[in-house]
Structures are given as structure tokens and as C-alpha cells.
Design goal:
The chain is α/β, with parallel strands linked by helices and 265 residues long. The protein has helices spanning 3-6, 43-50, 71-75, 81-86, 102-108, 110-120, 129-140, 153-165, 181-184, 189-202, 221-228, 235-246, and strands at 30-37, 56-63, 96-100, 125-127, 144-149, 169-175, 207-210, 232-234. It has two domains: 30-128 and 239-253, Rossmann fold (3-Layer(aba) Sandwich); 131-234, Rossmann fold. It contains twelve helices and eight strands. Helix 7 (129-140) crosses helix 12. The longest helix is centred in the C-terminal third of the chain and has 14 residues, at 189-202. The protein is globular, with a radius of gyration of 22 Å. The model has no long low-confidence stretch (mean pLDDT 95).
């Protein structure tokens, strides 16, 4: 008998409106939106580590920027923030939206960044790396901050003035003076540890801040603290912590250093 003669000719069944239940999803505890620079190699990698806990998820969009970091290229991002916020899970609720550029947050200004985010997400909590760093300094009880950046001099001038205008002292300011974000993301652990040691020896400080979302620090922040006895944070490290706290996640994770044992001050 041929295959055609033995083929099943019964009609295909279509089952519609199947019953279903919903759970809280992968972001049951916190849904965090993150705007990542087009030139950034590091933020998503570090956020995957720092936010790796049940019920916490982050969702990112990329914002166009030049890989050459100058005050003008940083300022040019302002008009793109609202659209980049709007494409993160349209129609779904987010607890926090974080704008992931430290130096642009200072060149543009935190309040202007927040206004752009809130234009797309009127009810969301907002943060930036420098907003998060200030929250971290207060949680540490730190006033004298040693700062390390990768930036060129005109960007460094903005950073130092911005931090000091918020009432913090910067007795030591150190920089790799590199303007290319693609190179900044490859600054080695040993280079950063050497910079930390130089800053620590230069003047008494209460805490150390490594500015720039492209610089890798999060996975060895605790090691630096153990070695130096000084609280340390970075742009991604502080912002991941701040996003969690703004979303109401209070878990302590000492493996990531002192900051992740603290709540918002």
C-alpha cells in the first residue's frame, strides 16, 4: 500500500484560549532599565555579576555616542535619553531606570538626565553613576574622596568640580588620561591596582571612587578593601547597588565589598 493511501487524513485540531496562570516573571522583585553607551564594553558584564539574584532582572538599551569622550560628545547624548528610555520594555513596569554614563551625567547635569528619563517613564525612580556614587559616599560616611578616572583633562576638570560642588573633598585626583572608550575598557586589573595604591599613599582619604562605566572594578572591589582598609566603589559598582536599593531590594552581598552590606543613607 502506498504512503499516500496510509497517510492520516483527519483534520488538524486547533486549540484556542488555553487557560494559563502568571507568576512574577524573572523580574518578580525588581525590574531595572539601564541605558548603556554604544561604546561601553563593561557595564553589562558587571551588572550580570552584581545583580545575579533570584527575581532581579535588568533590561538595557544602547545610546549612540562617540568612542572619543569629550565634553561635546558627552553633551550630545542628552537629546537621545528619552527615546532610549522609551524602548525598554514598552508597556511594562520598571522600578528604576539608570543612565549609564558617569561623565555625561555631570556634563549634562543629573536633573536634566532625570527629566529626560521621566519624560518617557513618569513614575520611575532614576539614577546615574554619579548619583549612585554620592549615595555610596553618604552610606560610607565618607567626606574625603580619592578619585581615579580614565578621562582627558577637560573632562577631569568637570568631574572634580562637580564632586566638590556637592560638598565632598577630593584631596587626590588621578587619571589615566585616555579619551578612547575602547582602550579604557581594556585597562588591566594590575594597572588599576597600581593607581589605587598611588592614590592611597598620596593623602588620607575616607573612600575611593573609580569613575567611568568602562573601567572594570566590581569583581575585585572587596579585594581592594581587604588590602587597603578603605571603602571602594566604581561607577558600575555603585549604580548596581543603588538600583537595587531604589527598587527595594535590601539583600546584603559582602562578596562585593562593604557597599553591598549597606542600605541607602
Amino acid at each position: 500500500m502506498s504512503d499516500a493511501a496510509t497517510a492520516d487524513t483527519s483534520p488538524m485540531l486547533t486549540l484556542n484560549h488555553l487557560p494559563y496562570e502568571m507568576d512574577g516573571g524573572i523580574a518578580e522583585r525588581a525590574a531595572i532599565g539601564v541605558i548603556v553607551l554604544a561604546s561601553d564594553h563593561t557595564m553589562e558584564h558587571e551588572f550580570r555579576t552584581l545583580l545575579d539574584m533570584p527575581g532581579v532582572a535588568f533590561y538595557e538599551s544602547r545610546i549612540w555616542n562617540s568612542n572619543v569622550i569629550t565634553p561635546d560628545t558627552l553633551r550630545a547624548m542628552e537629546d537621545k535619553i528619552e527615546d532610549c528610555t522609551g524602548v525598554i520594555l514598552p508597556g511594562a513596569e520598571l522600578d528604576v531606570v539608570a543612565f549609564g554614563c558617569t561623565s555625561a551625567s555631570m556634563v549634562i547635569g543629573e536633573e536634566k538626565v532625570f527629566q529626560r528619563i521621566l519624560s518617557a517613564r513618569p513614575e520611575v525612580a532614576c539614577t546615574t553613576p554619579i548619583t549612585s556614587a554620592f549615595a555610596a559616599f553618604r552610606a560610607f560616611g565618607a567626606r574625603r574622596i580619592g578619585v581615579i578616572t580614565p578621562y582627558r583633562e577637560d573632562v577631569n576638570a568637570v568631574v572634580r568640580e562637580y564632586i566638590e560642588n556637592k560638598g565632598f573633598e577630593v584631596p587626590v585626583f588621578a587619571s589615566f588620561n585616555e579619551e578612547d572608550d575602547n582602550k579604557v575598557s581594556r585597562i588591566s586589573k594590575n594597572s588599576l591596582l597600581n593607581a589605587v595604591e598611588q592614590v592611597r599613599k598620596a593623602s588620607p582619604i575616607d573612600a575611593l571612587f573609580v569613575s567611568c562605566t568602562s573601567v572594570r572594578l566590581a569583581e575585585f572591589a572587596r579585594d581592594i578593601e581587604t588590602e587597603t582598609g578603605i571603602p571602594v566603589t566604581s561607577s558600575n559598582h555603585a549604580m548596581a547597588w543603588h538600583c537595587l536599593r531604589l527598587a527595594g531590594v535590601r539583600d546584603e552581598r559582602p562578596e562585593f565589598g562593604k557597599l553591598f552590606e549597606l542600605q541607602i543613607d
